[in-house]
Structures are given as C-alpha cells and as structure tokens.
Amino acid sequence: MEELDLLKKDWKKNENSFEQVSEVDIYKMLHKKSSSIVKWILIISILEVLLWTGISLVYNSDEYFIKTHSEYLIEYFKYLTIFNYAVVAVFIYMFYKNYRAISTITSTKQLMKDILKTRKTVQYYVWYNLGMMVVSMIIGFALVFTVDPKLHELTSKGNAMIFMVAFCTICIIIFVGLFWLFYRLIYGILLRKLFRNYNELKKIDL
After folding, report:
1. How many domains does the structure of the chain reveal?
2. pLDDT at 128
3. Residue 85 domain boundaries
C-alpha cells in the first residue's frame, strides 16, 4: 500500500485545494488493486482445480477397487467426483463474476459491496473444500477397511479397531490442518489486502 500512503500524505498536505482530485486518485488506485486481487483469487482457484485433476489422473483408484473386487464403488466415486467438480465450477464462475463486477468502474459504495461479496464467496469456497476433504477421507478410510480383506480382518479385533480409528482421525486432522494453513496463507493474504482496501474506501465514503 506504499503508493496509497503517498497519495494520502499528499492529500493531507493539500486538502484545501486538491481534496476532490485526491479522492478520485485514491479510489482509482483501490479499484485497480482490488481488481488485481480478485483476478489472483480466480487464477489460484483454477490452478488448484488443475492440480487436483493432475493428481487424480496419476493416482487411479479404479485399479484398487478392481483389485479388491469392489467395482461397484467406482460408480459411487464417479458421481462424487462429478458433484465436486460441479460445485467447484460454480465457485469459479462466481469468482469470475466478482472479478468482472469489480473490474467495471462503479461507485465507491458498489465497489465496497463487491469486495464484501468476494470475501464471503472465498470463505464459503474454503469451507466447502475443507468439508469435502473431511467427508472424502472418512468415506475413503471406511471403504478401504471394508473392501480390503486383510484390513477388514485386522479391524474385526476390538483393540486394533480402536487403534485404526484413532490413527485415521489423526491423519484427517493433520491433512485437513495442513490444507487449512495453505488456504489461510494463500487466500488469507489476498482477503486481508482486499479488506484493507474496503476500510480505505469506507474512509473516502464518509
């Protein structure tokens, strides 16, 4: 925000003669920065989808289900994957719409509304992804222990079952925790910058 700080300092020095010009300049800069941030949110979400698609192509779970004679599960996972991609596609479309809305020159109040809308959309997107990870991992562990004869035999013993449930729970917490930190780092930084822009716009709008 160095350029913005310089503009604000200049505005304070010349607030009697250049107040209107300074407000317009600050608005333009905040508009440009906000548009750039939302564009990066859109780009990162698309790259994330491409990354997961690449991983799913490398690791093919169908082979495992065929090996364990559980071909009927392939269809269920296929529908789950289609559902997940459909929801993520809706979020990406919403990010695109937010980007288009913020890129268009609007009033200060409208820009503020668009910023808040974008923040909310990103938050919903992050929580959906984390929730889907938890659900997918629980289903995955449950199915592996059910269809794999060796694991099924192992978990049929009381103490072993407790140990495996504890182990799976720890794995889920660690895995989801790491992704939460990733989202917090990547999207969190962008959202904090976006909210700073919102607060600056709020000062102008007063």
Report:
1. 1
2. 93
3. 2-205
